[in-house]
Specification:
The protein has a domain at 66-267. It contains 4 helices and 20 strands. It has helices spanning 96-105, 153-165, 221-224, 235-253; strands at residues 37-39, 59-60, 65-66, 76-83, 125-126, 129-130, 135-143, 150-151, 175-181, 186-187, 197-204, 207-215, 260-261, 281-283, 286-288, 290-292, 295-297, 302-304, 310-312, 319-320. The strands form 7 sheets. The protein has a 6-stranded mixed β-sheet, sandwiched between helices. The longest helix has 19 residues, at 235-253.
Amino acid sequence: MTRSARRSRGIAATQTLLALLLVSLCVSRTSAQESSYHLVPTGKGWGEAVAHAPLALATSGNRISWHGGPVMHGNVHVYFIWYGNWLNGAHPSDSDYTTYLLKTLFAATDGIGNSSYARINTTYGDTTGPVTANMAWTRSAADKYSQGTALSDAAVRTVVYNAINSRKLPKDENGIYFVLTSSDVAETSGFCTSYCGWHTSDIILGADIKYAFVGNPDRCPDACEAQDISPNHNSGADGMASIMAHEAEEILTDPDLNAWYDSLGNENADKCAWTFGPTVGQIGRGAYNQIFGTHRWLIQMNWENTRGGGCAQRLSGAFYTR
């Protein structure tokens, strides 16, 4: 469900465009030089375009390396921009139940932040210390189709800009801004065909703003949902939860696309994309592997940068493969 979040998108002419490979199921990503976007490995088995410009290697880790850029520290504030129709849209997931579920996932108490799962990211760091595990939902804003129903990458940035410029959301360099789109909204650079989500950063109103696009997987369940019957009886929301976890852990360890990634350009969550490990229970036919608060979730694993490296469900837990 989670796709690492960055693929290059034809950006500055001075930088190299990434070739996006569409590969068969269960194929690993391709490497290519890219500029300011890193698109997620979204798509079960699709190839990825890597979004990193080549930088000098600073520190070699456990099959992933630090390239000298900053990571995120302290208390990270998570902001949601609900784009489109999240009240009574085309699918049951286009509803306030989805907005409730995802706020509980990032709740300050008993949410994903500072959990053993989130603390996997503390195995990364920079010269000022380890990556934080503290992240929590802080505020939301609504945007009812200000850029239409077909968003370009530039339009996603505009949605973030408008939310900050209008003061619906604060300007926060230690924040993560999620643009979450209802199922009737397309992202024209490849949502549902090349990715399910992506993240990047840009200077917006004079600040280094980290943001991510995550679409409603009910638009393309075969591509962006791990299971069509979910533990929270909302396959779109549950699909988004795993993609958002994927993007969040990459923003924390590689916020400006110049920190932690491997020799192929894969960030920590990319290395475990669509890898969930053993499930610990089932509600109906919806399996889950994590419990945050009162809800069960099927969340992709993250790459732990210790013990030689591996995909884990919790810090210092067992490593698993696909």
